[in-house]
Each structure stands twice: as structure tokens, then as C-alpha cells.
Amino acid sequence: MTPSARVQAAIELLDAIISSARDGGPAADTLIARYFKDRRYAGSRDRRAVRDHVYDAVRRAAERPESGRAAMVGLARERPELAELFNGSAHGPAPIAADEAGTAAGVVPGWIDPLLAAPVEREALLGRAPVDLRINRLKADPERVASFYPDAVRLSGLPEALRLPEGAPVEQSDPWKWGQVEVQDAGSQWISAACGAQPGMTVIDLCAGAGGKTLALASAMAGKGTLIAADTIRSRLSRLDPRAERAGATFIETLLLDQGHEAGALQSLHGRADVVLVDAPCSGTGTWRRNPEARWRLTPSRLDRLVAEQARILDFAAPLLAPGGLLVYATCALTDREGRDQVRAFLARHEGWMAEPADVPTGRAHGDGLLLTPAHDGTDGFYFARLRRTA
Ligand SMILES: C[S@@+](CC[C@H](N)C(=O)[O-])C[C@H]1O[C@@H](n2cnc3c(N)ncnc32)[C@H](O)[C@@H]1O
Q1: How much is the CA Rg of the chain, to the nearest whole Å?
Q2: What predicted TM-score, i.e. pTM, was given to this entire model?
Q3: Does position 391 have pLDDT exceeding 90, yes or no?
Q4: Cα 347 from chain centroid?
Q5: CATH of 195-389, one of 3.40.50.150, 3.40.190.10, 3.40.50.300, 3.90.1720.10
Q6: Residue 221 Cα, ligand 1 centroid: separation in angstroms?
Q7: CA of 282 to the centre of ligand 1 (A)
Q8: Which of this chain's residues are annotated to bind S-adenosyl-L-methionine (predicted)?
């Protein structure tokens, strides 16, 4: 492909990503993979160049662009070498008109900005993310595994964590093939640690998804006790089985919940759990550095629905705890509605609960919980709180 044809391909892909974000369709990575599957003539250098153009344009635009061309023109206005490729050559984009408006640059969509927790540093939300590993104690000793990654940095307070540079080829390493490490952002590792799961406990991961945090809880429990992973989406939960097998965490039980009818399925667990983790569905505002197009998907009404769902999940989670048990509420969101205010509202609705400090040497206290941000903590953005059932 010529350099101009790569720009045109990026424009076409951006059109698809924009429509998909508007209509709740597949993620950008999926669309890019599909695009190249149908275009075998594109070599690996073409693919890399097109992908870079696409992600540069996505990262640059806070608001959903009008079109792929507007997004690329906005980028080209800042990069003369890119602007030159709008030259009308075969398979390339038409020249940029003098009055052609490109998409404006920005980090946070205008309507979301006032909703973010005040301490959040905006620029870093779109920064580059390192590759964090979590060493799986069910299969390996952290010191031995660390010796396989001489470039890794240890993270103070997280003895199972290793930090590698962005793009490190972890899947080619032996510990990964042997199930001794999982790729997991340090923020997720802090949340799992804040659950204080111990061998022999009864622990419920109520929004387990594909089980990223479930596996960390399993490692902390040394494979002993009861660990239940629940979710409402079968395809997500079914991805946990092979991961658990690989990690040697075969004691995990899975529970598929029926959205809106969860309480019935959970009735037999009432009053039994030592720990319940609610890693709630959320706006994902803390993970934009990995999914920058998520900014184009969120709408005010979608946020309203998420906030209502989080409150509903907390309400059916609460009766699961035994007296003295710990409910950990977490989101990878940085809006106060989903974090600080959600926890405050839970404590106002439920008697016999108190927030207790998260005993972790990271983050910033915010309301009754803790805020983690890329700039301050080097993690994805999270909010979490530890809520103790006192009665
Ligand atoms: C943030 S994700 C969980 C990520 C997962 N804990 C991890 O560490 O990889 C939120 C999950 O909540 C699930 N969910 C949404 N509504 C739910 C409900 N009413 N009950 C249980 N899970 C729900 C979603 O399907 C999604 O998998």
C-alpha cells in the first residue's frame, strides 16, 4: 500500500469505529482485525501504519468525530507530513480544502469532564499503559518467576506484581505458558488485595466477568475455601474455565445469574460470605488509555443506567455477607456518581454497615473509599471502598 492508501484505509476504519461506538457495536480492535482479514494484500508494515494512524486519531479526539475523514484531517492539521498524503493519488484521500474543519483535539468529552472526581489528572487518562503481571502463587514462587523477567520492575506493596514496558511480549515467556503469571493491571491487583481473602474463607466475586480478579482471589486463598464467580453474561463466565484450569485454580465455582432475578439464585448464600467483591459494570472512564474509543460510546443516559445498575447490584450483594464480613465495591470509573456518591448512597440506604480504610499504600482517600489514577498511581483509574457489615 502507498502511504496515501494507508491514510485512506485509516479513514475507512475510523468511519466504522465511529458508527460502532454510536450504535453499541464491536470494539475498534475487532473492527481492525476484520478489516485486514478481508484485505490480504496489506502486509504487516501496512497494518501497523494504518493501526497507528487510527489510534493516533482516536486518542486525539475527545468527542465522537463526525466522520473518519474529519478525525484524520484534525490529526493532519497538526502533522504536515500527514497532510501531504492527502494528495488525491490513486487509493489515497482527496486534498484537504482550505476551509475543511477537522475534529478538535481533546482528552475528556465536555459533558463528562465536570463529572470526574476533582483530583483526576486529565492528560494522563490517555497515556501509555505498561504491562503489569501478577504472579500466581498457586503455581509459582514470586522470586523464581521474577528471575525470568530481568527488565521487570517490582511494585512496592504488591509482592506478586511485575511491571514490564508497554508492548512486552509476555505470551512468549515460559511462566506465561505455564500459567504462573497473568496479565493484570496493578490497580486490579490492589483491589483484589484489598479484599483480604484468606485460605478457608467463603468469597463471592459477584461481577466476575472472565475472572481476572477471581484468579487473584484464588491465588490469595491458596486454593482452599469456597470461591464463587458470578456474572450475568454466559460468554464472559465461560472464558473463566480455561483460565482457571491453566492457573491451577480448579476450586472456583461459577454461577450464571439471570439479569433482574439475581436475588433468587443467591438466596442460599445469604449471610454466608466472608468477602463479596462487587467489581461493578461501569463507564470505564479509568481505562481510556487502553480503550480510547470508549469515550465515544458513553452517553448521559447510558451513564444513568450504569449508576442505577450499580446501586441495584450493591443492594442484592449486601445480604450475602455474614456479620463482620467485608463488601468491596470497585469500578474502573472515575466519575463521582459511580464511586464516591454511589458508596455514600449505599451507606445511607443500609443500616449496620461502615466504611473502613483500605489498608494499601497507594491511591488517594476520596469520600469513603480510595481513588487510583494513572498519573498518581501508575495504574488504570479505579475507585474502590471497603464496607464492613457490623450487624
Ligand atoms: C467490570 S466488569 C468485571 C471485570 C472482572 N471482575 C475482571 O476483573 O476481569 C463488570 C461485570 O459485571 C457483569 N454484570 C453486569 N450486570 C450484572 C449483574 N446484575 N449481576 C452480576 N454481574 C453483572 C458484567 O457482565 C461484567 O462482566
Answers
A1: 23
A2: 0.94
A3: no
A4: 26
A5: 3.40.50.150
A6: 21
A7: 9
A8: 231, 258, 279
